[in-house]
Design a protein that fits this description.
Number of domains of chain A: 2
Strand content of chain A: under 5%
Distance between the termini of chain A: 46 Å
Radius of gyration of chain A: 19 Å
Helix content of chain A: over 70%
Helix content of chain B: 55-70%
Strand content of chain B: under 5%
Distance between the termini of chain B: 71 Å
Largest sheet of chain A: none
Oligomer: heterodimer
Order of helices and strands of chain A: HHHHHHHHH
CATH class of the largest domain in chain A: Mainly Alpha
CATH superfamily of the largest domain in chain A: RNA polymerase sigma factor, region 2, helix turn helix motif
Largest interface: A-B, 57 and 54 residues
Structural class of chain A: mainly alpha
CATH topology of the largest domain in chain A: Rna Polymerase Sigma Factor, Chain: A
Shape of chain A: elongated
Number of helices of chain B: 11
Chain lengths: 188, 282
């Protein structure tokens, strides 16, 4: 879509035109899901985050700076919704634990080649387990840096933390993931 | 620089430390560690569950019931569609179910579009005026600031031209109705024309400000025709014939359509930075 066309659609949506907002939803839904899934690591939770993000975006559209990029703005809303959902989930004790990484000992590896290892469900399970060991802040910081290509500075801004805190959140996440996955790689 | 720490290598991997990158380029030991880290982080690029092309629509279906109807003075298209059968059929008259529904539903949408267009015209005009008017800022900006202003101006021009194209399409529909509809009652068309005049004035002024002379000329002619329609006495078939002859002799519908096409083509074209490539048609 051309930038001018997008600006017109956005202007209409800000005026309350639901058809225009529908176009925005249809344009950005897949990217929103991708981000939400990476943050939540659960399809159903990701769907909830996507839905809540668009509802929040609609509510806040009048405050949206017309010259900003809607995708970037929505990206931030998705992150905030995911943060809320993760904190809520963590509050219910569903997944995250603070402290050192504890990798389940039940996982085993018997793949003969790195190629097979890379494709195996086992490494995915191990990764999944280790991602769940990250704190919410570490997980979000790592996801934004690693998967979304956001700079440390952006991450600090999105999370509302200092640049150095954002950097160290990424460092801690990498250390934990490394500690969890390194043994598998050595075995391979 | 001494050897890179693990954290330095993380920054290097993500391109956030030129110092670490420089060291890795010269140090075999750190380069080996950097490759090892890259190999590990590479295994984290796992796939995201696929979503079909219909996904956006599915999300909309879930989201839409939760949205508030917003916008001062505006109604949602759905609400408008529901009301159009009654509200647009003259003053207080209602039609039996199934009578001319299609035509009046269409008119309902057009009316909604006109209301939105008038608002959009204000938005686009304000946006455009803000970009093209003389900026009181002191000329202390760096070249990058100038480039940003140029980009803003191009964007503003693009927004204006797209908005004018939309406006012309709506005007086309009204003029076509005037030219081809029954002479007995054009009160609905008069109302549409009245709605379009305010937007037309704003766009004409913006086009003049942007040195889009041919656009401004067509809008000027269009405005006069719309004023003729609005001010035509309610029961004067002779006057309507006169208005039609004027529209016809000025080839106004033709000009409106040519200009609409031209603006759409410019919209699609990549060169949006030129001042005016419009072919004079008036």
């Amino acid at each position: 879509m051309e930038a001018g066309e997008a600006a017109v659609i956005l202007a209409r949506a800000r005026q309350g035109d639901q058809d225009a907002f529908r176009v925005l939803v249809e344009l950005h839904a897949r990217a929103a899901f991708r981000l939400a899934f990476r943050l939540m690591r659960d399809e159903r939770d990701a769907e909830d985050v996507v839905q809540e993000s668009f509802i929040r975006a609609h509510r806040r559209l009048p405050a949206f700076e017309a010259r900003s990029n809607f995708g970037t703005w929505l990206h931030r809303i998705v992150v905030n919704c995911a943060l809320d959902a993760l904190r809520s989930r963590d509050g219910r004790g569903a997944s995250r634990r603070e402290g050192p990484v504890e990798i389940p000992q039940t996982l085993t590896f018997d793949g003969p080649s790195p190629e097979r290892l890379a494709r195996s469900g086992e490494i995915r399970e191990r990764l999944e387990a280790s991602m769940r060991m990250l704190t919410t802040q570490e997980r979000v910081a790592f996801t934004l840096r690693h998967h979304e290509g956001r700079s440390i500075e952006d991450i600090g801004e999105v999370l509302g933390i200092q640049h150095s805190a954002a950097k160290h959140a990424v460092f801690r996440a990498v250390r934990k993931l490394r500690a969890a996955l390194e043994p598998l790689r050595r075995e391979a | 620089m001494t050897h890179c720490s693990d954290d330095d290598l993380v920054l290097e991997y993500y391109g956030e430390s030129s110092e670490a990158s420089a060291h890795v380029a010269m140090c075999a030991a750190c380069a080996e560690r950097a490759r090892d880290l890259a190999s590990l982080l590479g295994t984290l690029d796992e796939p995201v569950p696929a979503r079909s092309a219909e996904y956006g629509r599915e999300v909309w279906d879930r989201v839409q019931p939760h949205l508030d109807a917003r916008g001062a003075g505006l109604v949602t298209p759905a609400e408008d569609r529901g009301a159009s059968v009654v509200s647009l059929d003259g003053a207080g008259r209602t039609r039996p179910a199934g009578t001319n529904i299609a035509r009046f539903s269409l008119r309902g949408n057009a009316r909604w579009a006109l209301a939105a267009a008038a608002t959009l015209a204000l938005v686009a005009s304000a946006f455009f005026a803000g970009r093209l008017s003389v900026q009181p800022e002191p000329a202390v900006s760096a070249p990058t600031h100038a480039a940003v202003n140029t980009a803003d101006t191009q964007m503003a021009r693009r927004v204006l031209l797209m908005s004018v194209a939309d406006h012309l399409e709506r005007s086309d529909r009204v003029l076509t109705d005037i030219m081809n509809g029954p002479a007995a009652d054009i009160s609905v068309e008069q109302q549409w024309a009245g709605d379009l005049i305010a937007a037309n004035r704003l766009f004409r002024q913006d086009a003049l400000d942007a040195n889009e002379a041919s656009v401004a000329n067509v809008l000027d002619e269009l405005e006069r025709a719309l004023l003729d329609v609005v001010h035509r006495p309610a029961d004067a078939p002779a006057d309507l014939d006169q208005i039609r002859r004027r529209i016809d002799s000025a080839a106004l519908l033709f000009k409106v359509r040519v200009l609409t096409n031209e603006l759409r083509e410019r919209e699609l074209g990549s060169d949006v930075s030129s001042t005016s490539t419009a072919v004079p048609i008036s």
